[in-house]
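step: validate -> pass
step: tokenize input -> pass
step: predict -> running
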Amino acid sequence: VPTFVITRAVARALVARRDELAAQGKTLDVKVIADSGTYGYGGTPNEDGYLTLEDAGIPVRWSLLTRVQMDHDRKVHSKQSLTEKVDLIGSTNLSNKGIRDNWELSGLVYFDEQAQARQEAVDRFQQLWDHESVSLDTRAAADAQGLKGVGREEARKKAVRRMLGLIQNYEVQSAKWMEEQLVRPEVLQRANGLQSLGMAYGYARLQAVREAMGESAFWGAIRDLPTRQKVEAFARGEARGEE
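step: predict -> pass
step: emit ->
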């Protein structure tokens, strides 16, 4: 489930379904990636959903997206639930307003015998999971911050907000790094070529740099960025996450 919004209620529904199947001797492997965008106060509508999933032992991550330039504001804006049999896609946020109030559109893609279509969808999610998201251990992060006079749950929420701030710092630095890679004429030429074939501006540039460097070198360089290392250290509860 890569999603723009994951509320507490939807998170509880996922947990309930997992537990229902477990009682039948079945296993439901759930993975959720929540968009890390924030409101003006520094919080996120996904905070309670994230904590609910974490408490239930369901793997959940924050998006950690690479930008190609300073005003390239990438988001996990999908409203998707990908299963072995179907792909639920559309405009409906996984929230009370999205599901109950708004005028939305969603559709089901049945894979049937279309193994290739399902594999392509899985591969896209797996790349996001492996390279452009991060799992925050909120308890360890809260302990690392050493907050005094703050309740345990409030400390965890403060850890979430600190993580989101670190992610924003990473996005800015990744944009500067990408701009440096796109100075090379052959890389920019390839990006423009991909864009002329219909690929979106940002993704064309990401793809061109990845091709020029190779997958392993590209993601290795991304992980070596100082702000990325701070994100991952804070996620493990190994640092306070200072600027």
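step: describe -> The beta strands are 2-3, 32-34, 60-63, 81-82, 86-90, 106-110, 133-134.
step: cleanup -> pass
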